[in-house]
Specification:
The protein has 70 residues and is mainly beta. It has one helix at 32-37, and strands at residues 2-6, 9-13, 40-43, 48-53, 56-61. It is built from 1 helix and 5 strands; from the N terminus they run E-E-H-E-E-E. It starts with a strand and ends in a 9-residue tail after the last strand. The longest helix is centred in the middle third of the chain and has 6 residues, at 32-37. The relative contact order is 0.21.
Length: 70
């Protein structure tokens, strides 16, 4: 297990480290086990993922790439 920082909290996760290079905007794919452990809910209508951590909620926006097909 490795602790992943989400906002101001840490959540244990098993994952593979991805070499994303120097670009901080490179997307990282979060697997279902991690999202379950972190108690995450993905809201596609508002394009955000919310992590319900103890007594706090951490919210992060996400965006569909412009060239993505539906």
């Amino acid at each position: 297990n490795v602790c992943v920082c989400i906002g101001n909290s840490y959540v244990p996760a098993n994952f593979v480290v991805l070499d994303t290079g120097q670009n901080p905007n490179t997307p990282i794919i979060l697997g279902c086990p991690f999202l379950h452990t972190a108690n995450a809910t993905i809201y596609t209508g508002t394009a955000e993922v919310c992590f319900y951590l103890k007594e706090r909620i951490e919210q992060f926006p996400f965006y569909r790439p412009i060239n993505a097909s539906i």
